[in-house]
# Entry
Amino acid sequence: MALFDYGNTRLRARLSSLQPIEKLESFADLTSIDSFLSLLTKTPYKESIEAALTYAHGYNCLSQAMRMELENIASDLSRFYQDAEGKLVSIIFMRDDLLNLKTIVRGQTHEIPLDEMEDSFLSLGTIPLAFLKELAKAKNLDDAVNKMVVYELPPAQVLLELRTEKISLNASEINLTLEKWYFQKIKELLKGSSENIQLLQEFYAIEADITNLNTILNMVSSPERFANTEIKLYLIAQGNIPPKVLLKSSKSDSIEEVVRGLFATKYGEYLKKGLDCYKNTHLLSEFENQLRMYMLNWQSKLPRLNPLGIGVPLGYYARKRSEIRNLRWIGKGIASGFEARYIKENLVRIQ
# Structure
């Protein structure tokens, strides 16, 4: 644990400089994006805002500055932690790699313009941005897989194996293959019983639960898409929710029945909130939003509960990203002329 001391000391200082929710709410009362940017230069975001102002203005300036701040998270953590501790910390960012690859799959499938794909890339992953941009330029999914092989990206081999089994590749098969590869890789990397390993295992177990819940909800809402499908093939084994519970949920007749059947899990309180929201919006994303709030609140407590280990970088990673998300939302709201009350109501609030 002692080898986490150097980085944890610095991250605790950064945690203390995060903006309180009251300060974020006061930003929402501003009426121009320029006044918002001006106020941010009086916060720890000063350097990024001033750098972005040299080539961008308005909301685009804020967007570029926030991208710099995200990149700073990754660079800080890579500098603060070395050797075995550094390898553990780098595992935190593997989810971002997966999401970036899925962005490319989605972009190729739906012919999303190159600039939109590049804007969607998360800047916290370990795959170099230059590689991601080249993958985004691929002619089709087959070409994208070929480029992954050239760049020796970790999931390339499983995608090559998938291609030998299929006449042509489709997005759903690639995404499923990537998800299964990813969680299996995490399982291989996180062997042991130390407190740090257990925290990372829980972090990814929650991710697996979110993935599985999304799968079950989509199956129940669109049964025709999954007709004659063996549900087990679509489930990730590394989650907290037992497979038998998920299989039972998949046989539900309605979304509400699925969710109510999971009220007894650790996510019950959050799923109840999601169900209330779903009744108003009919958006399945309400449930993922609530589980991500569970994740955020869990991570936010880790610096206090695990002050000598990986709990500090896990907590900082979550809270800093949440603050950046809030600042983006405030800037977008001001630029779009939203009412201050509406902007405040949609801020992410850590419990």
